Amino acid sequence: MLEPYKRPGIDDRPDLDKALSPEDKAAVARLAIKNRRRPPEASADQPEAQAVRLAAASTATAVAAAASVDAPAPDMSSAYLDMRDPMVASNGEKPDAKTVSRLNWGFFAASMLIGAPWIALNAVALPNAVARLFHYDTAVLQVTINPVTGRPFPVATELAMPLAVLVIVGVVAAALFTPLVSALSDRTRTPFGRRTPWMVTGGLLCALFTLILGQDTSIVVMCFFWALMQFAYAMLSAPLASAISERVPDKFRPRIERWHGIGVMLAQALGVLVGAFGVMFDSYSPFIYAAVLFAISGIASVLILPREPSSTEQPRQQFNGSQVLDQLRPPTGAPAFARVFAARACMMTGVGLTSVFLWYLVRFWVYGKAVQLTSAPLTIPAGFLICAMAIATLIGAALASWSAAPISEAIEARGIRTSVVVAAACLTYAVGLGLAWGLGVWSTGTARENGMILFALISGFAFGIYDALGLELVMDALPDPRNAGHDLGVYALANSAGLGLAAIIGALLVNAFAHSFGYYLLFPAGIVMVLLAGIVTLLGAEKIEEISE
Description:
This protein is an all-alpha fold and about 550 residues long.
């Protein structure tokens, strides 16, 4: 009987489990290479994560994300720079078409659910709660005439300083807690993934702290829980930004980031509407609505998104507090970066002078001296005007998102410097401020309302163009592409710095002229800061060109 043919080196190989002795197996094991799993990259150092976080910081950067202007963050770990598959996410997942669609709509819905209640708190609910502490809730204001000028005294000027203190506490707490939460979530090892537990818990904590903030307490208690609120909100926002860079492959990231930016834009308008309609009923209603949205946001976001893979197998990483503080350290020897940072801080200061005190401007400047002919509280017309301004701002931002890319292409074809257009956007924003100020001071009747609505429309467009095109200047000013993630995180602090400066400058101006101008001075101060931002942008762009030459 013929033996079956045995392929040399294939069929005649010995069974090593039987052929080798235990001593031989131990010797082979000592020669084996231990394949230690590399720890994932820290989210604080990921350029894409920082770009998403920047897009969620304000309406303008959301416009930049939705405008499709070609100014991507320099990501040295991109799959397009090596042999990795751009259809595979950085966490190793390769999503199919259905999963990509869930990622797209999941991050879009999450940005709205998380952003809307936050805007409702900042824009209407908290300023009105501070006013309630000083008995300015829905009561009819008693108009007092200045015997020297014959004009009414400014109303509710004593509210500016307490609100400014609350804003500054929040700014400082957010600057510290956001990198802390990012570092802790990077090291989370659970069967539900790294980001999911933080988002669910953060949403519930935000709901709890929101209900506490709405109680009749004191400004000290409000500051304490507002600082805790920053930590809870960081548990929602920071893991969401990190999840986009980890779970979305490079191939689909521009589209999903664009829809995330659109969601942030819609959240801005929706949040103002929630706060304004809520305050029409009573001062506690917007806190209830915001708390419900917060409680839903974390749970709904993780349910809409595909299930996050387990993180129990990732290597343990030791936590070091210096890693958190390092995220606040600016790059050294980078004058171009310092100038774009200063320009951004000046712009955000000019914007914040009206946005921080917007509810007081509408409630006590536009309607503060109105004669109440019915029993309805004055918060009702103020709420409707705030809603109209939110819709006008959304329209202006949408126009900026639609026109930013064609404008960028047109100025490139004509050889116009981007800095000139960015400075022109600053000038346009100043025109909007001047229009609202002029109609409010020198006109009567409905002129103030119309001026505020026109200001919202112009500012939404100008601010959107400023950020969509200004993003190109930021990317050109980054000192080292290898540290782009860290530097973009530092640049995002310009938003916080500008907001804090706006609170300080605005409170000082209102209190210094409490018996003459009051909230009037917020508009000219904003004009000065916005124009200063345009000047710094032009000077900084010239320095960047000199360095590049």
